[in-house]
Design a protein that fits this description.
Structural class: alpha+beta
Distance between the termini: 28 Å
Number of helices: 7
Largest sheet: 9 strands, antiparallel
Strand content: 25-35%
Low-confidence stretches: 1-29
Radius of gyration: 17 Å
Helix content: 25-40%
Mean pLDDT: 79
Number of strands: 11
Strand order of the largest sheet: 6-5-4-1-11-10-9-8-7
């Protein structure tokens, strides 16, 4: 639960799906989002658009992206709200999170699963530690893991827009498409998704994302009081 929540949070990933770098701009200005951010109610959102003929087929059932969005959003929100309490961007470029394991009432702190850096306004580069994120995932193909490590090392662009004390972090269309082969791997670890559906997603989802005209995966957090 902790690893999935972190990925959904910083994907983004949802995470959101949310982790090497440092939090130092070229001009040495402090990062505006440094500090603790709380997970709000129903924090995840998906914006997904595609031509009407772009569907995923499951036997005799055909699902449009609108229908998929309606199915996926509640599941992502349930996972994040149940397992993630808050996220902290430290001044030295690390990401920490307060999480709770499934069927546990105890909140714990996760550290060293991701770092970030920022050089452009309203954008951070997220660097997950693939070995830690996928440590408990059995049967992960070595070739896929190697490709994921390359993406994570380069950094995942995460954009953000603020409205008062709330900030929406999101993956844009270009980034989601770049991660199209990673997302099925992440979704395969979600126990609430039936096993029979996972091979279908692994086969169909990358192509579906590629044909989409717009897709954003967002996570809204609220700045904690000092």
């Amino acid at each position: 639960m902790m690893k999935k929540s972190l990925m959904y949070c910083c994907m983004l990933i949802c995470t959101m799906g949310i982790f090497s770098g440092c939090n130092k701009n070229d001009d040495k200005k402090p990062f505006e989002l440094a500090g603790k951010w709380n997970v709000k109610e129903m924090p995840m959102d998906i914006v997904w658009e595609a031509p009407d003929n772009v569907v995923i087929e499951a036997g005799k059932i055909k699902l449009t992206v609108k229908q998929l969005t309606a199915m996926m959003t509640p599941t992502l929100n349930e996972l994040v709200q149940a397992g993630l309490k808050d996220v902290t961007f430290t001044a030295d470029g690390k990401i920490e999170a307060t999480y709770k394991k499934k069927d546990s009432k105890e909140w714990m702190t996760a550290k060293d699963y991701a770092t970030y850096n920022t050089k452009v306004a309203n954008k951070i580069l997220l660097h997950p530690d693939a070995d830690k994120v996928f440590a408990e995932m059995k049967g992960l193909d070595a070739t896929k893991l190697a490709a994921i490590k390359v993406l994570f090392k380069a950094g995942i662009p995460v954009y953000y827009t603020s409205n008062g004390s709330s900030t929406r972090f999101y993956l844009d269309t270009e980034t989601v498409k770049a991660l199209r082969n990673v997302l099925p791997v992440l979704l395969a670890s979600v126990k609430s998704i039936p096993d029979y559906a996972k091979p279908l997603m692994a086969k169909e989802l990358p192509n579906l994302l590629e044909k989409s005209t717009k897709i954003e995966i967002g996570l809204t957090l609220t700045k904690a009081a000092n």
